[in-house]
Amino acid sequence: MRSLFYLLCSAFVIGLAYWAYKENYRTQASLRGVKELQQHIAQEKETIAVLKAEWAYLNRPDRLRDLVDLNFKDLRLIPLLPSHFGDSEMVSYPGPDMFNINTPVRVISTDPENGKEWP
Amino acid sequence: MIRTPLRPLARVIEARKHGENPDGIEAAERTKRNLATLQKTRKRAEARLTMLGLLFFLGFAAVGGKMAVLAMSEPKEPRMALSNSQIYSQRADIIDRNGTVLATNLITTSLYAQPHIMINPEYAAKELAKIFPDLKLEKLMEQFTGKRRFVWVRKKTSPEQQQRVHNIGEPGLLFGPREMRLYPNGALAAHILGGTGFGKEDVRAAELIGVAGVEKFFDARMRDPAQVDKPLQLSIDLTVQATTRRVLEGGMKIMEAKGAAAVLMDVHTGEVISMVSLPDFDPNDRPAPLVKGDQSDSPLFNRAAQGVYELGSTFKLFTAALALDKGLVNENTMINTRGPIKWGKFKIRDFHNYGSQLSVMDVIVKSSNIGTAHMAKDIGGKAQKKFLGALGLLEPTKLELVESSHIKPLAPSNWSELSTMTISYGHGIAATPLHLASAYATLSNGGYKVEPTLLKTDSDNLHGARVLSGETSKTLMRMLRNVVTRGTASFGEVKGYSVGGKTGSADKPKPSGGYYDDRVIATFAATFPTHDPQYVLVLTLDEPSIQAAGEKRRTAGWTAVPVAAELITRLAPVLNMRPEVAGSGKVQYTQVKN
């Protein structure tokens, strides 16, 4: 009986030791993973910062103004002036709804030769 | 184990045979047995004690050992607690009121050399001089062949330059990561942002330290690790700032001025929406301060917040404001304008002769020095000083710029009656355009004190102490409007925005004393729209002149005012202000259903 108890105990201890060993390595592995992830995040953040800076640099007012001047033919943009403000009076009151132009319409008239409907 | 009985039969019989007491045998046996038990227990106790001692020793050894290890090893942050932000970025971004980036950080590489491990220093120096044209070949040669073991070559390099340096193939040229400050908008808002420089430098990193502007004012906050993720939001609007700079630059060229400044301020909150000073500089490549000569000629000089000028007739409004607020006059009271006023050998005269008397309104509209001086005499110097003090015109502003925090307006220490009269029309007192803008904002917003600020405020109404009554404020706005519709600032009319303003042209003082005849500071302080003031614009031109209507004109009405009008035309739509066209707002719409 006693030896069985000892046996069980030692088996339990061995089991525990194995579990602890495994957990230890798993923890270390996830820590490594976290570290890698954090490096990755840091890299991505750096990239974002660079992109943000580039975006701000590309959108600087001086450059945009020059681009607008260069592409005046296509864009026809000029600085916003007070005369550009519209008034609700300038918008005409919406008329009645137009019918759907995709619906086919039958056009009927009478054939002058025989007096029948045509076509 | 064979147990010995206490009374072994053989020995008891033997003892009985000899007539001895067998109890003696039992006693002896018992003693023997007790002795054995005692020895056994003792042994066990000893073993236990040893075991316990060993355990304690192990325990203490473990603690001690750990302590020794901790003491000997390098201190290290626990890996899990490493926050991401600390890996890069050691300085917070700066953004404008709409969130556009004004300043951010970029990782670049620095280039340094270790001459003692160089293989061919001469060749490396020649190639480097080719890649970086601003480096001197002789100096590089001297540094690389000298005794130094470490030489900084460049603090910032671009990836292209880095590749070209790699192509030299010199093992003694090394790179280190380096964070740099980037101002993507270049010279826009240069004076506000200031600039940064490197503090303590290392091969692996370098400190970024603010050297001027908000960068220096908020240096501690920008570098605070707890706030490094939160960008600093300024009250500046980048679009408005860009427009202001462009128009001002054009105006400065047309008016042949050597410098110009403009401040646009929200009259209610004191937020500076744009502040431009020309000439300016690129904060990415901040020029060195002037070693000799006048600092105010340097592009680093902020004319709007640092330049202390006599702002001339723009101060007349303060005199009128005080006289109205004290109830001494109303806008129709007639003021004696017969001149010139003689004060000892000093004479006060007007630009034109305005006849014998003008109403208070017309004194402002026509800008009569004599009329204002008479009003100031009635008010008295003490009250005038107190009022100008209440408007913040005698103390440095609280603007968040290091440059402006110690700029105190120049006022006479002895406030005599003569100074009271000259100050009434803006001579003998000098302030920055920023001071003027905040004082005009106070007059415009109904009379509440305004402190200029560069930080965006969330609340709409940050009203300070009341300086003058709302009624006076309204009268003043009518006066300013009249200056534009029929007075000295007639070029300032912008259709639909009801601009009101006051001009000021002051002769520039000579460094040797006295005033120049042909150099003026032309100022226009405007507020719009006058029936519900939203913004104050102060525009200053340094030494402007223009050939107009047959003669050379220098007064503000011909120089600063047209530029300001153009500026308001361009700015008001950007500021989301609708022009008020006749007829708009009067039409009523009724929805009819049948």
Q: Which helices and strands appear, and what pairs or packs with what?
A:
The complex is a heterodimer of chains A (119) and B (594).
Chain A: H1 2-58, H2 61-70, H3 72-75, E1 109-110, E2 117-118
Antiparallel strand pairs in A: 1-2
Chain B: H1 9-17, H2 22-72, E1 94-95, E2 101-113, H3 121-131, H4 137-145, E3 151-157, H5 159-168, E4 173-182, H6 190-193, E5 195-201, E6 206-212, H7 213-217, H8 219-223, E7 232-233, H9 238-254, E8 259-266, E9 272-278, H10 316-325, E10 334-336, E11 341-343, E12 346-348, E13 357-359, H11 360-366, H12 369-379, H13 381-390, H14 417-424, H15 433-444, H16 470-486, E14 500-509, E15 515-528, E16 535-542, E17 546-548, E18 551-553, H17 560-574
Parallel strand pairs in B: 1-7
Antiparallel strand pairs in B: 1-2, 2-3, 2-4, 5-6, 8-9, 8-16, 10-13, 11-12, 14-15, 15-16, 17-18
The CATH H-level homologous superfamily of the largest domain in chain B: DD-peptidase/beta-lactamase superfamily
Give the strand tally of chain A. 2
Number of helices of chain A: 3
What percentage of residues of chain A falls in helices of 4 or more residues? 55-70%
As a percent range, the share of strand residues of chain A is under 5%
End-to-end separation of chain B in angstroms reads 123 Å
- What's the total count of β strands of chain B? 18
Explain the overall architecture.
The complex is a heterodimer of chains A (119) and B (594). Chain A is mainly alpha-helical and 119 residues long. Chain A has one domain. Chain A has three helices and two strands, in the order αααββ. In chain A, strands 1-2 form a two-stranded antiparallel ribbon. The N and C termini of chain A lie far apart (111 Å). The mean pLDDT of chain A is 86. Chain B has 594 residues and is an alpha+beta fold. Chain B folds into two domains: 91-233, Penicillin-binding protein 2a (Domain 2) (Alpha-Beta Complex), CATH 3.90.1310; 240-286 and 298-574, DD-peptidase/beta-lactamase superfamily (Beta-lactamase), CATH 3.40.710.10. Helices cover 36% and strands 19% of the residues of chain B. In chain B, helix 3 packs antiparallel against helix 4, helix 3 (121-131) packs antiparallel against helix 5 (159-168) and helix 9 (238-254) packs antiparallel against helix 17 (560-574). The radius of gyration of chain B is 42 Å and the shape is elongated. Residues 81-88 and 583-589 of chain B have low confidence and may be disordered. The chains are: A mainly alpha (119), B alpha+beta (594).
